[in-house]
């Protein structure tokens, strides 16, 4: 089976009638989520009412421009004075354009032909992260806006001595300036941030942004390798090893890569100014033809993941053996001995070895905290959601998601957030599938998946889990890898960062609950990666009270697997993993879903309102309460003359089709979201009918009924990497948002 196109869906009604009869038996009227899902099922009446609206979204790309996902701004014209030192009359100004970076690197990679060796290329973060916000704060003569360490101190809560994280550029040695990639101090910010400003020292949004960009520009360690996804979602990636030298020649401004690109591009003179013109996809195509993508071999695909997800039939379930969840101290010590005995270790191998040796110095009671966040001052007036900053990596922080920023509307901030989260999940899925890494969604994302197969619009947490053996493999082979989105789809860059203390498997008392992160370089938003393993950790009291998991105290041999916080699982609760979709992206989910969610979120499967958002069952969408209030009467929103959320929720559940249409007509953002998610939500409802029984409980006999099994296999067979739901972040922020 294949996905039905949106246009065809408008007319695909009669064929769903038989399915409707089956699905309707699933729903019951007890007030739970499943009670209202029957209202989603397409009917002749509903489809005829909504079809004109969906057709308008599909055809009117001026009005509904955010659904226009293909890249549009491909033709680039850059003055040579911005990218060539001899032409650069003001080298203190930073220049960044991801299309230029991709063109320079893919053009260079195309020159290596079919060499089996992975090339080594120069790298500087100034070319891979947008730090141009520093331009008006660089230390050049007459700049009244330069930020000093002293000025930073005054804008940080508690006014700490900044010496532990900041140096004024004047005290840097010439060698430090050179190793940072600069020829003079005038090219650097006055306040050079070289370490994290502690969590207890909260700061304003703009101060944290400055500290992040100053650190990235001058002190952020390089990744060990860069991988670029293949075109057309084909298997394989393009890789290069990062030159670890630290000097100005690592920057494109001073690199041969730029000169080579100029030689291979069109240069013209306009009004006395030389400009280079190119389309970066031309160089990407050129590279793809001459520089073969590296594909995972059968030996490297240790779990045969490619065979499972690429198969044309079957349930695509993944089995997990108990051996995947074991990682003893003895095993760590043996790995240390093996690596220490190896000659000519690579940088990643040295990093992996040093991480193991570092972890052996500590345990969960005294290990240093690895990941750090940009703690924010919630008293700042523009911090409208009281954002503490816990959901960002401090190194790439680039504004709070919901921040009252001049020139932005609340709807635009929501769209930006949706883009970031979608591309984050999409590229994590693409990476793990390419490299044969097993992971599955858990916690908040799994709860969100249960509701409608999409991500919550109010939750920026994406949590994935994996067996400890997979986490160790991820760390050994891909730690400090920069993952680059398929250039045909966007310009995202994502850093894989695995903590040094993953080899300690007891519960961490120092905050190391998360083992790794997949970090969006453009925003600092990340996916939390946690490993599960056997350990001597004892069950928290809630597990004993509810008898979800049984384990004797201090028993390190029990087949019970925990993360480094408070979550414990048995193998049957996790496996077999089931292949599904989240926001249209392929993901694995654990075996026992409802049981686990009911344990973690007691009312999470039944509560239709959260944090100002209300679930509209007829649309299978979470909608802002403020938007729903516009179509509801006082009688539908008040009880005893007081606004009452239960009354509002019940009114929303019972809205007629005509009033739902009125809601869609009144709000383009809601209509757009329905257009994007309608097919996915309908598919998810079919999936839920297979995985859960009439009471919404996990169905333990999913595959015992032959007809149900065949139906489920056909559903799973529809899963594939689709086109992105939303336009890429760079085009949204740089061009489209301001143009509309």
Automatic annotation (TrEMBL):
Keyword Transmembrane helix found: yes
Domain LicD/FKTN/FKRP nucleotidyltransferase: start-end pairs: 432-552
Localization, UniProt: Membrane
Membrane topology designation: Single-pass membrane protein
Pfam families, sorted: LicD
Family matches, as PANTHER family: FUKUTIN-RELATED (PTHR15407), RIBITOL-5-PHOSPHATE TRANSFERASE FKTN (PTHR15407:SF28)
Protein name in UniProt: LicD/FKTN/FKRP nucleotidyltransferase domain-containing protein
Organism: Clavispora lusitaniae (Candida lusitaniae)
Organism ancestry: Eukaryota, Fungi, Dikarya, Ascomycota, Saccharomycotina
